[in-house]
Amino acid sequence: MIQPGKLIKTTRAQIGVPRGTIGLVIQSHEPRSDWADGTDEKIHMVQLLGTSTPGIRTRRFLGRDLEVTNE
Q: How many CB atoms lie within 10 A of CB 11?
C-alpha cells in the first residue's frame, strides 16, 4: 500500500519525468470528484529524485502509476 514516507518508482512516463524515476511520497489524499467512487484510488504527491529537468521537484501521481520499492 502506498502511503507517505514510502520510496516509490514510477511505472508510467510523464512529460519531464521518465518511467522508472525514484521518488518519495510526501502526501496522499482522496480525489475530490466522483470518478473514483467505489475504488481505492488515491492521488499521491511525490518528491522526485534525480530528474534532469529543471523546475520539476514534485508531481502528483495516481497509485496505479507507482510501484513501492522499500517494503
A: 13
